[in-house]
User: Which sequence fits this backbone?
């Protein structure tokens, strides 16, 4: 058929097809037009500044390698960024279609969203390199979280990541004109510092506006995720992304890769769908962790994935419908606190010395609405944790104090001073959390910084299901600077 040439490891782009007449300089014109409309300005960087930010694109700064270029970590104007660099081959002339990086710049310059890896800027120079600067995602990819992490994420976390990814795709499909990503896969879902999913890699994305380009761009995507209906350019639709999302959801449910030659059948969809059809929902759930508690959750999650990968694309749900379904499931399966955070924010050894630490700045002194209020910087710890009791006493903390995370082997006895309730062990695995007060679960000491203990208090209205303190409404009492203590896994 000539169009489908996929490689199991990476996406195949349509870079060599004679598709778009636009050149880089033409697109630059769009940026300046767009910049006038947008509050979030896309910057054009000097190539030399990007060279300096990455130590001249040194291997030490290399974050990863995609099929069409390298990704580096850098600091630009005090901000951590990821810099994507692709090299045009000398044979390509300026009339060739844009490569993936150019396409990504083109798409992202007109699209921004909280669930996307947003464009910060770009650089073009006279040489063959094209550079894209995007937000830095410090916690790797969903692929890593599912397949390389020593501690697989909980169901609450998985459903939330699936929901956030679905929202990201819905953002694209709902934009005007709609954008089709064409390469939805776990390796393209990046995890930000607050462990939220963000959709990235728009190298293959197409805007449904340019009929000529849409009609003439050959199918592309990643083997294992690619919609079997998408065999000619004319078959492309938003339902192409829905199919790939269905594969990603099966991957999240089962912990199996989209294609795994170690299994029979190797394709996750060929294995899972017959089981779902026979109502054997439990069989597809990741054996590394307990399945979701409620049978209705197990069934609904499996069924929504099965609907997304229906062979008849008209019968697949829209991403909006998927978002509604996953939102409902997400409310039923809350996230447990501390679980799944890839980066420990504060660890202390048995002597109370910080092992690795970051300080979390909470910008709001009153009510914080979500994790965007948190800004992670380097910690300068003032006191070893074993002295916290003194600090605690000094601040005269109160009855609704719940947990204090203490390092492994920390023997200090922290008790609620007001009621003498025995501390309860809330979390294990190296870190222990001790309860001060069994009756009131509304606030948590997250740590200390420069000699002060800070306390984040749950908003009373949030209720029982709000386990994730820094993702939900909270009130802050005490200092507005806190050290966040997280599970070390
Ligand atoms: N914004 C980012 N922040 C942090 N790391 C990133 C970022 N973007 C990409 N990376 C890292 O670089 C790697 C390569 O990314 P890239 O998007 O170029 O390719 P890919 O999606 O992994 O592969 P392909 O291009 O073949 O689909 C990613 O796997 C990830 O580890």
Assistant:
């Amino acid at each position: 058929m000539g169009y489908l040439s996929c490689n199991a490891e990476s996406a195949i782009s349509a870079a060599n097809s004679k598709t778009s007449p636009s050149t880089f300089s033409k697109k630059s014109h769009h940026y300046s037009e767009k910049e006038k409309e947008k509050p979030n300005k896309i910057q054009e960087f000097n190539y030399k500044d990007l060279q300096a930010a990455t130590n001249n694109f040194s291997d030490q700064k290399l974050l990863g390698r995609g099929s069409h270029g390298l990704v580096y970590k850098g600091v630009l104007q005090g901000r951590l960024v990821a810099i994507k660099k692709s090299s045009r081959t000398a044979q390509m002339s300026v009339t060739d279609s844009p490569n993936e990086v150019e396409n990504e710049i083109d798409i992202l310059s007109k699209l921004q969203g909280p669930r996307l890896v947003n464009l910060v800027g770009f650089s073009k120079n006279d040489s063959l390199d094209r550079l894209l600067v995007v937000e830095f995602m410090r916690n790797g990819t969903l692929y890593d979280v599912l397949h390389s992490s020593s501690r697989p994420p909980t169901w609450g976390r998985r459903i939330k990541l699936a929901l956030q990814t679905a929202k990201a795709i819905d953002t694209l499909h709902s934009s005007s004109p709609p954008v089709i990503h064409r390469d939805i896969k776990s390796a393209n879902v990046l995890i930000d510092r607050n462990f939220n999913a963000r959709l990235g890699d728009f190298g293959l994305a197409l805007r449904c506006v340019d009929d000529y380009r849409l009609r003439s761009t050959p199918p592309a995507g990643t083997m294992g995720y690619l919609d079997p209906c998408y065999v000619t350019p004319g078959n492309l639709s938003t339902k192409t992304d829905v199919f790939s999302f269905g594969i990603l959801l099966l991957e999240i449910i089962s912990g199996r890769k989209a294609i795994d030659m170690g299994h029979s059948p190797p394709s996750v969809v060929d294995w899972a769908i017959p089981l779902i059809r026979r109502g054997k929902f439990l069989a597809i759930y990741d054996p590394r962790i307990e399945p979701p508690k409620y049978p209705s959750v197990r069934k609904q999650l499996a069924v929504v994935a099965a609907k997304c990968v229906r062979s008849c694309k008209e019968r697949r749900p829209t991403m909006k419908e998927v978002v509604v379904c996953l939102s409902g499931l997400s409310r039923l399966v809350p996230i447990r606190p501390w679980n799944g955070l890839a980066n420990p924010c504060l660890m202390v050894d048995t002597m109370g010395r910080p092992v690795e630490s970051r300080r979390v700045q909470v910008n709001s002194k009153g009510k914080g609405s979500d994790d965007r209020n948190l800004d992670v910087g380097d910690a300068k710890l003032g006191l070893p944790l074993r002295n916290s009791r003194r600090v605690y006493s000094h601040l005269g903390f109160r009855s609704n104090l719940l947990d204090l995370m203490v390092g492994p082997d920390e023997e200090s006895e922290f008790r609620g001073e007001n009621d003498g309730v025995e501390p309860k062990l809330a979390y294990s695995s190296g870190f222990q959390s001790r309860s001060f007060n069994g009756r009131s679960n509304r606030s948590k000491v997250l740590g200390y910084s420069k000699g002060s203990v800070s306390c984040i208090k749950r908003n009373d209205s949030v209720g029982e299901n709000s386990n994730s303190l820094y993702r939900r409404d909270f009130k802050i009492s005490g200092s507005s600077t806190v050290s966040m203590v997280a599970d070390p896994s």
Residues 10-11, 63-69, 71, 82, 84, 117, 134-137, 141, 183, 187-188, 190, 200-201 surround adenosine-5'-triphosphate (CB under 6 Å). Residues 297 and 329 are 6 Å apart (CA to CA). The chain has a mean pLDDT of 67. The chain has eleven helices and 20 strands.
